[in-house]
Amino acid sequence: MSTTVIDLDDLDMFVSGDPHVAWSWLRENAPVHWNPTAAGGYWALTRYEDVAAVYRDPVSYSSKNGTVLGGSYRSATDTASGQMLICSDPPEHRLLRQHVHKAFTAPMMDRAGGYVRRYLGEALDRMVADGGGDFAVDIAPMLPAGLLSAMFGIGRDDALRLLRLTRTMIGHRDEEYAGPAAGSMTLVAAQVEIFDLLTELLERRRVDPGEDLVSILIAARTNGRALSESQILYNALNVAVGGDETTPFTASAIVEALIQHPAEATRLLDRPELLDTAVDEMFRWTSTNAYVARTTTQDVTIRGVAIPAGQTLTLWNASANRDAAQFPHADRLDLGRTPNHHLAFGVANHRCVGMPAARMEISLLMSELVDRGLRFAPSGPVDRLRSNFMLGIKHLPVTVS
Ligand code: HEM
Predict the structure, then answer these.
(1) Confidence band (pLDDT; 50, 70, 90) for 74?
(2) Which residue among 151, 238, 295, 325 is least enclosed by CB atoms within 10 Å?
(3) Domain limits at 361?
(4) Of all protein residues, whose CA lies closest to atom 41 belonging to ligand 1?
């Protein structure tokens, strides 16, 4: 292998290959890798230590140009820049975050947990009665559907509609979600439709406030000043996308991992007290959000490589989480692993604000699988999302016993 044959933009590698082979080679041989693309190129960091150091330095590495390559928030002129949590820098970031954070309280998580338990339980009952199904389609979406029902104060059908739209946004390079014209226009169209839905919700909540995220953002004040309408919409969108596009893919990846590691599946069924460490190990192992991007604000040098200001850097969480310098036997799934300081949620000021929700959803799923003593086996090929950003499983046909 050589740096010239490794292309982290090669989506075929993410659909049918094993990107871990490429990441492992990069960690060893080219930890500061220049990945050329048709649009120019970007730097790729694959070692735990380097990825964590960049996360911790928001002054030299900005989020303002967006965190997804080719995503909608890449341009400095994009209106989301500085207004949406994920693509803002301090001090705006801190101000926005304190408001969004208020939507992830323990009572909200309890309420959301009630919905998740109900939707998930009903879907699992159906799958068990049928002897199997497509886990990625029949079960996984119930996690964000439950969460968003509570966080947005909407019914299951609206939550699933929101999920379809955010999936088109994130899967805009994948024909199954975005149609034959998959590309940036599909992304824009999906985003417009989500904004219509959120604007309607905003108007309703202004008249009739509730305990949901939009009502919390409407009531938010910084030195007596309310958030602008676009700040409310962008941050509601940020939570919807963050909530929809991560945990369902993680859920399917967990079931795939349990199928591929039957001894660990048995260990968990025999020792349910391992659930806490198992949940974290599954976050490390699956690392659904493969990378996040940053832009250098000044000339920097990483491991002797000079990187000028204004360049794009990608921080590969999925690779850092398999770095043997940080995790003993990093390539081994160990549901009892401790300590486990993985970077699946990033670290420092932008660390996933939805982490309590993700933990709640995945813990509920795993304890439900353990309580019911469920074992899965493959009943058809796994179909993966055409994306290097989200390590997503679109179809996971299984039998269940
Ligand atoms: C397994 C599940 C999840 C994973 C792997 C994940 C991953 C991440 C990562 C890596 C970041 C850091 C981005 C950066 O530093 O630029 C992040 C931020 C964020 N996540 Fe998550 N996430 C998950 C679940 C969720 C959920 C359930 C929600 C909402 C309900 C959510 C909402 C957000 C938001 C709003 C941010 C921006 C935080 C900020 O910039 O301060 N995420 N997530």
Answers:
(1) very low
(2) 325
(3) 11-400
(4) 350
